[in-house]
Amino acid sequence: MTLLQKQQNLILIGMPGAGKSTIGVILAKLTSRGFIDTDLLIQTSTGRPLQDIVDRDGYAVLRKIEEEVLLELSVCNCVIATGGSAVYSETGMAHLKSNGIVLFLDADMTTLEARIHDYSTRGLAKRADQSFAEMFSERFTLYTKYSDITITCAGLTHEEVCSRVMASVRRTDHAPSL
User: Fold this and answer.
1) CB 29 within 8 A of CB 100
2) Are 23 and 169 spatial neighbours (Cβ–Cβ below 8 Å)?
3) SS3 at position 80
4) CA nearest 103: which of 8, 11, 3?
5) Which residues lie across from 81 on neighbouring strands?
6) What's the pTM?
7) Predicted confidence band at 178 (pLDDT cuts at 50, 70, 90)?
8) Distance of alpha carbon 147 from alpha carbon 2, whole angstroms
9) Dihedral sign, CA of 130, 132, 133, 138?
10) Who's near 166: CB < 8 A, 6+ residues apart?
């Protein structure tokens, strides 16, 4: 079976504010794929906003729920926007990578801070004593560990990021049809 017949997923990882959901919708339209946002799956399955889960149960519970949602995904030919903390689950990432190309949307701190002014409402799966900059540093290592392709997003529009994603995926030897 060729890779084109597999109908691989395009999996977006990156920090909150990197544009995973917005870019994911645009990529899905451009590539005639379905779109899945795992943060929305978490909220739908629990009936609760992410921030409520963090506030009441703690960040570790949110990460566990996120891992369960990732492991339950069984889709082909989709763009999947993951939550920023998906990379904390080694088994979840291995499951996603088994039928997909992982794209790290690498947005710098300046871009992230310009896009999101109040992180207290984002439902971040982080320790209470951890600053956003510390979380950024910790996660950056994980994003680069799991990514097949890194897209530098600083200074680009969402459409420009999508163009780079599509060009990068076409250049790889595991390119699905775009």
Assistant:
1) no
2) no
3) strand
4) 11
5) 12, 37
6) 0.89
7) low
8) 22
9) positive
10) 27, 30, 31, 178
